[in-house]
Amino acid sequence: MLKHLLTFLLCATSLAGLSGQQAERRAGELLIQLAADAGIETTLTQLSRSAGAAITLKKTVAPEWRIYLLGFDEAAVAPDALLSYARRLPGVGAAQWNRRVYERNTIPNDPSWNLQDDMSLIGMPAAWDVSTGGLTPSGDTVVVAVLEKGALLDHPELAPNVWYNRGEIPGNGLDDDNNGYTDDYRGWNPRTEDGSPGAPASHGTSVNGIIGARGNNLMGVTGVNWTVKLMNLANVEYEDEIISGYNYVAKMRRLYNNSNGVRGAFVVATNASFGINNERAADHPLWCAVYDSLGKVGVLSVGATANNDVNVDTQGDMPSTCPSEYLIIVNNVDKFDKKAIITGYGKIHVDLGAPGQGAYTTRSDGNQPKYGAFDGTSAATPHVTGAVGLLYSLDCVSFTADARTQPATCARRVRDVILQNVSPNTTLQHITSTGGRLDVAAATKSVQDLCGGAPTGPLSIQWVRPNPVENILQVRYQTPGYNPYRFRIYNMLGQQLYEETITPDPFSQNIWEFDASQLPKGVYIVSFGRNDVVRSEKFVKK
Predict the structure, then answer these.
(1) Of 32, 202, 329, 495, which is least surrounded by CB within 10 A?
(2) For position 509, what pLDDT does the model report?
(3) Phi, psi (degrees; rounded to nearest 5) at 459
(4) Measuring CA to CA, which residue among 116, 134, 152 is closest to residue 368?
(5) Phi, psi of 114 (to 5 degrees)
(6) pLDDT digits (tens, 9 = 90+) for 33-82
């Protein structure tokens, strides 16, 4: 997808002064990341000397990633000067403010919407015929991490699916499982540094319910997964808490991979139904960086784009503009399968749509469990997160057999199945990278069809579309095996203009994409092959 080819250079412009929600930073706090050879005490001394006042360590946010939260007195220190100096200081890899994020739901405006039309829209009945979630074919318990301020985890639809760290004894003040966290029995709370679930907020209760409300239990509603484990990351409101929560997820999945399932948790996805309007990735380098770190251990992240009718490619948004191939950004379609009036879009940064208008799911009023409508990209996003969890449970051993040994490869495969099997949607074409809406039934069928591996055969280019092309050129290819192959683009003088090496995946649709928008009008050749065996086709750039 185009989003994953974007660099931070496209995100360097700040949009301060635009109308709408403004990013609120926590006064007197600065986030930094240190290089491997830099020490925090030396850094604090240098910063304090430059500022002419004490700069202190408030918290080690993510020890594996060497990210720290610093404190200072704004009456004694000029904040902008401190940030500027910190970014230039040798040994500091990145520095940024500690900003607040905002939940991305809107107030339901149509109380007559009936129950769970959202689940039918994305094909869940057909998908549930294949799997209702829970376990991989290898017996791994599928876990999805939900970052929220809090949720009513005791809601009768959620309680059976809540994840517990069985290696931890709750409330004894000890790190019983030696994972670096104390009392993380029911997830992790970065603010209180224990497993407390936070306030029973209805927003978090709804997000959890869409992903994994217990199904087929003669009660209320169902989630995308009837059975899945929901890992609670509570009190996630500022960026230090976001990073700390993600760090916990990465640590638990890494432990699971390295111990062959004996320790940690098989977390396959995270859900972020929050964000900041009009913000650029370049101003949030530490937040954006965690998505690649999570992806390397096998965790896909799913994020909500803005609840405004705005092009986030040009006006910015967080986390939408983070350029990670392990991050899926979701916008909102209504019950008529059309782009919601108030939802963000962007051909580069928004991947697909999902139902988020009036989704009927779990709610809470304090400690009282309820049901009701839930709106916005906050509702759309957990449909995609739930789909990631469900795909891992499909009865196709080879699809996720490498989840522990090649976790990043497996995560990208799951991502590709979701993005390559969207339902085409005219209201999302040209304003999302896929031009479509989540279709879990189609994604499930794709895995079933390819369970024995993608068809192989003589090396060939099967089609080139569209031809003539204006923007994105797609090439369907076939290979005799799964070795690396090269795509090249030539002009009619034989000059090579582009080259890319790809490795076919048994579960891909063998479609290569090329952004032809920057080519001058004319005739070109796309070449595909390995060693001396090459196949070529002409195409026209209009």
Answers:
(1) 495
(2) 74
(3) -55, 125
(4) 152
(5) -110, 115
(6) 999 999 999 999 999 999 999 999 999 999 999 999 999 999 999 999 99
Q: For 498, phi and psi rounded to 5 degrees?
A: -160, 145
Query: Which residue has tokens 């992790």?
Result: 188
| Strands, sheet with 496-502, edge to edge from the N-terminal-most edge strand | 496-502, 485-491, 522-530, 533-541
Q: What are phi and psi of 463, to 5 degrees?
A: -160, 160
CA distance 335 to 359: 9
Domain coordinates in residue numbering, the chain:
25-99, 103-449, 460-541
Span 460-541: which CATH code?
2.60.40.3080
Cα(208)–Cα(154) distance, integer angstroms: 12
CA 65/CA 250 separation, integer angstroms? 10
Its pTM surpasses 0.70? yes
Q: Mapping DSSP to helix (H, G, I), strand (E, B) and coil, where does residue 39 land?
A: coil
The token pair at 409 is 């490869």
For 388, the enclosing helix (H) or strand (E) is helix 377-392
Bridge partners for 526 per DSSP: 489, 537
3-class DSSP assignment, residue 225? coil
CATH number of the 103-449 domain: 3.40.50.200
Q: What CA–CA distance (Å, rounded) separates 284 from 293?
A: 15
Phi-psi region of 410 (alpha: psi -120 to 50; beta: other; left: phi over 0): alpha
CATH topology of domain 25-99: Alpha-Beta Plaits (3.30.70)
> Rounded distance, CA 58 to CA 44, Å?
11
Instruction: Please give the Cα distance from 331 to 35 (Å, whole number).
Output: 36
Which residue reads 């070109």 in tokens?
524
